[in-house]
Amino acid sequence: MTPTTLVQSVDWLAIAPPTLTALVALAVLVADLFVPERHKQLLGWTAIGGLAAAMALLIPLRGGDRSTFCLTTEPAATAACSYTADRFTLVIQFLVLGGALLTALLSLADTRDKLPPGEYWFLLLSSAAGAALLPASRDLATLVVALEVASLPAFALVGLRRGDRRSSEAALKFFLSSVTATAVTLLGVSFVYGATGTLHLTEVAQRLDDVPGQLQTLAQAGVALTLVGFAFKTAAVPFHFWVPETYIGAPLPVAGYLSVVGKAVGFTGLILVTVVAFPSYADIWGPALAVLAALTMTVGNVGALRQVSTRAWSAVRLLAWSSVAQAGYLLVPIAAAAYSSDDQIGATVAYALMYAVVNLGAFAVAALVARTHPKNRIADYRGLYAASPLLALTMGFFLLNLAGLPPGVIGLFAKVTVFSAAVDAGLGWLAVVMGVNVVIGLYYYLRWTGLLFREPLGESVDEPAGERAGQHAGERAHARVPAAITLAIVLAAVVGVVLSGYPQFALRFAATTLF
């Protein structure tokens, strides 16, 4: 029998990225008590510096797998460990820390006058620390803790605009749906533990193959409930109802953060429990995820298609429904992994990298437009090219990437990779559904892109004269664009262009085994 020990060694370099993020969060919270009001912006730059440093700490880890918090004296390759910094972990940590960094840049202007800076930066960094911990989690307890550390601060971030009724309602809906998901997940995890007697993912996979007959039903219920809980987190249909209202009520940078980092957290957890912990139940979760993928992409695209361009906050609503549809595409390779091999998971990772960059870029442009058009209608983007050619071209590039059209080459290749994963797994019907949904998505993405280059209207759509005058005054002040927002847009655009020129950087993750 393999000897066990209660004294676990700690590889500090392996755990450095999430640990540093958490320490900076605490430092910012304490510093907020002493920093004078006129210097509060220093807290934001400290948060940005901390996130950049955490990303830099990923570089020395790229050489190979590192594991820590192991229960046995076996070699690292075979030991049951709670934390593993493998290739999959590093790619997802790069994604979530990079997404948090762009979100922090977008948030600097809002923390100057709309949001309490100390609380905001603490909550954002705490959530990012949990999101960075989750892909490295290799036992169910650590996985659930990381999931909640990423989620709990997000509730407060959504409702941080004090006195705003929409913000409070959005936070409540988000909280209730997430608490439900957590309860279901914990119940499922407890059932799995009861049936297998272990929490480590690799050991769960081994013991689920040989569950005693009297515990078979308990194990099956645990697997099903755990999957349902993560389906909530990924905003898969029918667990998507909180998304549109939450995005509208949240500050725009937070909405962008939830659409990218929040989604990455859910999909990472789903990948770990399906491919690593529950491979013996692939005949159950494979068809279930395939159906969820078809429903999610269809409902998301139809919801986006129904948005009226003159309705208040229709731009944010469309991005919200679009994120639901994109979740459907992200689910396809996970479902395909049940029918072929774990290599299919790489398509989800490649697609997530593309989606994170361009979707945060679109939210960054929306945040900039919202400074002169607070209602953020799609119609407000009409004639943007005449006022700001570079901004319009950048927004068009982001939308075309989401649609999967040139010059958004990386968006096109990412969709082809996901489509190929479905075909290779023998899921022809799902590939057909995806093809139809991509065509539906083309309509509303191209409609929005076309508005950017049309002749501007003389007056804002269906608004009273006083509000129009206020908006024209805001447009005259457009030159006073916060440098941090401009930097966020430029970074997203540059990364998107680089990936379109060299798509192999992202797509190579689709051709290799991640575990």
Describe this structure in words.
This protein has about 525 residues and is mainly α. About 70% of the residues lie in helices and about 0% in strands. The protein contains 20 helices and two strands. It has helices at about 15-30, 40-55, 85-115, 115-135, 140-160, 165-195, 200-210, 215-235, 245-250, 250-275, 280-305, 315-335, 345-370, 385, 390-405, 410-425, 430-450, 465-475, 485-500, 505, and strands at about 65-70, 80-85. Helix 1 (about 15-30) packs antiparallel against helix 4 (about 115-135), helix 12 (about 315-335) packs antiparallel against helix 13 (about 345-370) and helix 13 runs antiparallel to helix 19. The chain is globular and about 70 Å long. The two termini are about 25 Å apart.
Share of helix among residues? 55-70%
Distance from first to last alpha carbon:
26 Å
Which percent band covers the strand fraction? under 5%
Low-confidence stretches: 459-479
Question: Widest sheet: strand order?
Answer: 1-2
- What is the number of helices? 20
Helix-strand sequence = HHEEHHHHHHHHHHHHHHHHHH
What does the overall shape look like?
A: globular
Instruction: Provide mean pLDDT, rounded.
Output: 85
> How many E strands?
2
Characterize the biggest β-sheet.
2 strands, antiparallel
Summarize the structure.
It is built from 20 helices and 2 strands. It is mostly helical.
List the helices and strands and how they pair.
Blueprint: H1 16-31, H2 41-56, E1 66-70, E2 81-85, H3 87-113, H4 117-133, H5 140-158, H6 165-196, H7 201-208, H8 216-233, H9 243-249, H10 252-277, H11 282-305, H12 314-337, H13 345-369, H14 384-387, H15 389-403, H16 409-424, H17 428-452, H18 465-476, H19 483-501, H20 504-507
Antiparallel strand pairs: 1-2
Helix pairs in contact: 1-2, 1-4, 2-3, 2-4, 3-4, 3-10, 3-13, 3-19, 4-5, 5-6, 5-10, 6-7, 6-8, 6-9, 7-10, 8-10, 9-10, 9-12, 10-12, 10-13, 11-12, 11-17, 12-13, 12-16, 12-17, 13-15, 13-16, 13-19, 15-16, 15-17, 16-17
